[in-house]
């Protein structure tokens, strides 16, 4: 006797009821698969963007000096992303890296975060941020000019920053106010992808000299180093550390690769998606309870059938398998429908918000195996009840 | 159709001091109060009695559907009360067949599939069970109905499919519970005729539970129960004479 055929026959015979029962699983699987697929899409999006930004980059930032010389750093003033940590990184550090002649290091550029606002003369400032850097930085980050030059003495505006300041009028040669100083626009960048902690489109870049003058500082807030290739990142880190340790024996700096930065972002996204998927998983459990409920009804409806089958020699195990197959089949159908729906929605949403989200084989396998598990777990009790039924009782019910 | 048979001196069914009670304390129901019964192989016996007499309980125990509270039951020399549930199911599938009151065919299987069902539960190879199923259908003269579903048959036809299903695996014992209970007179007569032919042709041991005298007339021996005890056990000829003389007296 084909157990599968019997189960399918029974499900098909009660189509409406089967559909409503499976709906719980459909919704549960749909929610879990959609969330994990969209989360996967976001991760893929981030990594793709990252490839554009450059996987070969290393960032050196100031750090708390090692314990044995902690008092030294306090003499220095500094800003930067961690403004409470005084920077001791200088332009000569940058030069040392640039002149190291190590083949794994291509370029290095100092960056200084300027806390001043930028705006048009006699107008309120705009939301762009201001940094000081050298023209090497543009090479490292692969930024190109759409107007003017990147090596001028004035300010280079990001694409969006220029639009915010001047609209569609040409920005080149115009004056902007940074802090209290007038600066001429000498270049405008082409629009570029941003990455974690890197937003060229909304930044105004000043030459380091001007930035030092504006802030009164003599140190940079970070140094960006480009390794010769993405594969040479870790030797480049070693060389950079070696060179800087010679100049900073107190080890008052920290080296982060873009890869590390990215993996932090990705693992954060993953944690969030997993958490959401876990919540969505509750729907699966509720769906499973629905299956159990209906299977219990089915068992009592089919007392007679169970009795006949047992009278004809069906063992407890035969009946158990028959009802378990039915609940698992119901759950798997629900799981597949849910997965297909999730695939459609993921595709549409992914297109709409511009991330490469698609069903992964992983998520399909997970969804289907979860459905099977739900079918088994919540099918066992009804199936067991059916199997233990005494045929005499079953046949007495007319 | 070959039937496994017990040719020794021992009876096929041997029941001693069988007691079955339900419930406990004051609510205890005594369904059977000490039954002693022997049925030989190739016999056709009718179990008669009013409802509540215990005949269905006895049949359930004989069919391994129920266990006695006390007493012994051996079938073909084997002690049935010592079998586990699983062994009982397996033994039932191979050696005991049932024809129920009402039409107990599975409505969503064809006649042939219904007849094959007990043999597939007995894990018989497909070709063999197909062969035996067809033989049984032919024996009952309904081979042409093999692809019909129970809903497409008359009551009498369906019950004959049920009988074919019962005898297809060559059982030791065929138990029938009010086999004509749900049928009109004509269909009922056809079914009874089928039983008799079956008994004559295959020699299968048949126990029929009924309260219908026309059914019991087809048996060789009538065992009457009342209130959980056997009150009468005699061959049909004697009984006929007895009822005849009773009829004459009144």
Automatic annotation (TrEMBL), chain B:
Boundaries of each ABC transporter domain copy?
Answer: 13-250
Database matches in SUPFAM superfamilies: P-loop containing nucleoside triphosphate hydrolases
What InterPro entries does the record point to?
AAA+_ATPase, ABC_transporter-like_ATP-bd, ABC_transporter-like_CS, ABC_transpr_LolD-like, MacB-like_ATP-bd, P-loop_NTPase
Query: One GO cellular component from the entry?
Result: plasma membrane
User: PANTHER family recorded for this chain?
Assistant: ABC TRANSPORTER ABCH.1, IMPORT ATP-BINDING PROTEIN
Q: Does the keyword Nuclease apply?
A: no
Keywords carried by this UniProt record: ATP-binding, Nucleotide-binding, Transport
| Protein name as it appears in the record | ABC transporter domain-containing protein
Q: Which GO terms describe its molecular function?
A: ATP binding; ATP hydrolysis activity; transmembrane transporter activity
Q: Does the keyword NADP apply?
A: no
What Pfam families does this protein's entry cite? ABC_tran (PF00005)
- Residues crossing the lipid bilayer are none
